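Notes to self after the Tuesday call (sharing in case useful).
The group wants a holo model before anyone commits to mutagenesis around the pocket. I volunteered. Ligand is guanosine-5'-triphosphate. Logging inputs and output together so the record is complete.
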Amino acid sequence: MMRVVFFIGTAGSGKSSLTAAFAEWLRLSKQDVSIINLDPGALTLPYTPDVDVRDYVNVEELMDEYSLGPNGALVMAADLIADEIEKISMDVEELKSDIVLVDTPGQMELFAFRASGPYIVHEFTKEPKAAVYLFDAVFSLNPLNYVSNVFLSAAVYTRFFIPQVHVLSKCDLLPADDVNRIVDWSANPKSLEYAIDQKLEGTKRLLSRNMMKAIFQLGLRFLLIPVSARTNDGMINFNMALERILAGCDKYTY
Ligand SMILES: Nc1nc2c(ncn2[C@@H]2O[C@H](COP(=O)(O)OP(=O)(O)OP(=O)(O)O)[C@@H](O)[C@H]2O)c(=O)[nH]1
Ligand SMILES: [Mg+2]
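Result:
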């Protein structure tokens, strides 16, 4: 059976790098993995995609043909991918891989907050799927940034409604203490509340507190798994979380 994992996160959060590093890591443990690039705007990629959306949709051609700027063309490209999804999906099925990693468009809103994204995820083969949402470690060190990112990830979840794993990406860029602190915020509301009181004042403090309360009231859990695409730290835990969701704790390839 094929399993599909979508990598989703704000621009520059490390989606393409983590896709590449995780694929390499899986290959080393003899797992049959493929990579799909769904980012029509990617100029260079840190991996060789097995299926590449740029073979179907060309952003530069759209700019020329419709006199669009780069952002307008990206929006149009995101919608055009939906028209091609049947063909893309067939290409993916033909790979017959056990696990398929999907790198999504750089600007998350093109994928998560337009009608085409959920349609693409839904139509993208009928196999079991999960999403990985990336929290950029350096950005998340500030409690207000962290809380707004939790909100974004909750919004993404409500768009796709597939199991979602949350990772703290680029964790090699922070000292271990800071990484542990952020992970603790994700596990323990009290420690986040403490950090908000310590580090924020006035409106920022009030807003963060209320946003945090709203999230916990919704009953959404966002336990973060620290990972690094550079050092491969955390890959074992990350893979275990995905195996638990997608393969009932088994490996993808026997
Ligand atoms: N130190 C470190 N840098 C990283 C890591 N992952 C990504 N980066 C760097 O962060 C930048 C963005 O990484 P990408 O993988 O392109 O992120 P992305 O989310 O695919 O970016 P866009 O698709 O352009 O939005 C690059 O300069 C990467 O080298 C990591 O684990 N550690
Ligand atoms: Mg990318």
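Two things stood out.
The mean pLDDT is 94.
The two ends are 11 Å apart (CA to CA).
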